[in-house]
């Protein structure tokens, strides 16, 4: 079961490191031990390293940034340097049990293509992303500013994010693409699950996706 952070009497938002570990723990909770996974936009490979340690998975990372690829290699992660937006033609159908894109889908141009490719090469896709409709982000826009928050920590002029979308937007896209939502988890900035209006109160969203 996904660990939930105790809020206590004086709750504080998760630190960046705590948010990363929470993200990893949710994803690990959805992957049975010993599976073969593909991590898209893997950065320096920390998620794959975590899954290897905690769930004995095997797999590959995919990353375009040269320095991140070098860090993966130094960290002992099997990594392939390609542009995900160009597709995953180097991988055969059903090569993996799970394809993951953790808080990186919003940085991609070809959202529809990527989701389709994930479910071509893997039996199941796991996606996490910051929810642009989170109440703090709405308040920033109402005040006339682009949001800067725990899960959207960049200013408008230096953000790597290309797409700003919400839980409602993402689920509508899945419906249009014929993608089945097997499970959803929304969490707040304290690492607590959100069930009451997650599109308003959820800062971060996680999905398990499959073919209809």
Can you describe what's shown?
It is globular and about 45 Å long. The chain has one domain: Rossmann fold (3-Layer(aba) Sandwich). The chain has 7 helices and 7 strands; from the N terminus they run αβαβαββαβααβαβ. The two termini are 26 Å apart. Strands 3-2-1-4-5-7-6 form a 7-stranded mixed β-sheet, with helices on both faces. By secondary structure, the protein is of the alpha/beta class. The chain has helices at residues 16-29, 46-55, 66-74, 111-121, 135-142, 167-177, 198-201; strands at residues 36-40, 58-63, 79-81, 96-102, 122-130, 179-187, 204-211.
Largest sheet: 7 strands, mixed
Number of helices: 7
Total number of distinct structural domains = 1
Distance between the termini: 26 Å
Tell me, what is the CATH class? Alpha Beta
Strand order of the largest sheet: 3-2-1-4-5-7-6
CATH architecture: 3-Layer(aba) Sandwich
The average pLDDT is 90
Strand content: 15-25%
Task: Label the structural class.
Answer: alpha/beta
Shape: globular
Report the count of strand segments: 7
Oligomeric state of this protein: single chain
Based on CA atoms alone, the radius of gyration comes out at 17 Å
Low-confidence stretches: 6-10
CATH topology name, in short, is Rossmann fold
Encode the helix/strand succession as letters: HEHEHEEHEHHEHE
In CATH, what is the homologous superfamily?
Vaccinia Virus protein VP39
């Amino acid at each position: 079961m996904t660990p939930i952070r105790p809020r206590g009497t004086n709750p504080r938002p998760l630190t960046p490191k705590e948010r990363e570990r929470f993200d990893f723990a949710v994803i690990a909770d959805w992957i049975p031990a010993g599976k073969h996974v593909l991590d898209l936009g893997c950065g320096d490979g920390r998620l794959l390293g975590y899954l290897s340690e905690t769930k004995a998975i095997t797999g590959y990372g995919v990353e375009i940034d040269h320095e991140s690829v070098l860090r993966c290699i130094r960290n002992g992660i099997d990594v392939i340097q390609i542009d995900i937006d160009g597709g995953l033609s180097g991988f055969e159908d059903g090569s993996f049990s799970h394809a993951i894109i953790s808080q990186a889908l919003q940085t991609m141009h070809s959202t529809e293509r990527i989701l389709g490719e994930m479910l071509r090469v893997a039996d199941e896709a796991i996606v996490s992303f910051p929810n642009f409709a989170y109440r703090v982000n709405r308040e920033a826009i109402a005040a006339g500013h682009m949001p800067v928050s725990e899960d959207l920590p960049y200013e408008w002029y230096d953000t790597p994010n290309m797409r700003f979308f919400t839980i409602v937007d993402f689920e509508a896209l899945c419906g249009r693409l014929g993608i089945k939502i097997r499970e959803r988890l929304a969490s707040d900035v304290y690492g607590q699950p959100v069930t009451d209006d997650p599109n308003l109160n959820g800062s971060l969203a996680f999905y398990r996706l499959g073919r209809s």
